[in-house]
Structures are given as structure tokens and as C-alpha cells.
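User: Can you predict the 3D structure of Kinase-like domain-containing protein? Sequence below.
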Amino acid sequence: MFSLAIIYENKEGTEKNLEKAFQWYQKAAENGHEKAMSNLANCYYNGNGTEKNLEKSFYWCQKAAENGDEKAMSNLAICYKNGEGTKKNLKEAFYWYQKAVENNNIIAIFNLANCYYNGGGTEKNLENAFQWYQKAAENNHIKAITTLANCYENGEETERNLEKAFCWCQKLAENGNEKAMFILANCYEDGKGTKKNLQNSFYWY
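Assistant: Sure. Here are the predicted C-alpha cells for Kinase-like domain-containing protein:
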């Protein structure tokens, strides 16, 4: 049932049909398939194959999370954070971010860092925030890489380190971030965090 839903949703070997995908996700979810529960929640959230319904989206997201689906854990945390389909509850959001992080969800790692940085659902702890931003950055989360580069450049939550700021900025630039490309060009032009290299500066401009 779940595989059939995937086929209809992604047009693999048949015509794309979101209504049929929804129906098969629903059948699989009602039979205890946790990934189907998670995908059914997404259908309700986005209005794919059915009418948009945030309360039903939250219900199935919660069921999927409780059955061990790490993406659902992260999405459930976001529901609690934003009050989507349920009352806003930052402590519950923090709890489910933690559960998702235990299952190596990269988005949750970044959002957990934000919780520590802003004091959302837990005590503000900049040291913990920095550690989780670093973990997310090491897993190629673009916003985390941006945050980490800024931390090293400005000496926020850690000692100022222009070489590390340059390295993370370079990683961003290599991932197509135009702002990072411009900053990297400036770094090469001014010898900031790296050796001065006008040829490389011209390349990144």
C-alpha cells in the first residue's frame, strides 16, 4: 500500500495522481505504517490529494512520531513551535526536537541549536547552541554553515577565528551561495582568514 502511494505521488511507472496517493497513504497509515502516517500528515498539511487540514496533519504527525519516524518527530516539533494544528507549546517543541536529534535528523539539529540560542522551550545556553550549530554545519545544513561562519567572524559564542570563518564561508560558496561567493572574494582580496590571492578573488567575484 505504501509503495503504491509513493508510485502515484511521484509518477513512477504511472500517471501522477495525488488523490490515489492520499488514499493509499491513508490505508497504510491505518494499518500502522509509520512512514505512511508521516506522509499522510504531509498530505493534510499541504492539501495534496485532499483538503488542507492542520488538525488532521498534526494527529498523523504525532502518530508517526510516536511510532519512531524521525522526520515526523522534527515536523511535530515545528507544529508545536508554530501552533499549527495544536496549541503552541515550546517545551513540547524542544522535547520533540531532542527526540529527532537522537535519530540524527539534520533539520532538528539546527532547530535545537536555535532553541538553545533563543531560550525556546529550554534555558538559553549559547555554548550548547554553538555546539549544535557546528553539528548541523558538519552535516551540510546551509543555514547552520552561515550561522557558524558568522560566529567565527564576529567571535559570537566562540573565540574569533577568521581562518575558520573563511573555511565555512568557502563551503557555502561552493554550495552556490552568492553572498558567500562575494564575501569569499573579499577575503582573498584582503587576505582575511587566508592568504591574499587576487586570482582567486577575481574567480569568486
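The mean pLDDT is 91. The two ends are 51 Å apart (CA to CA).
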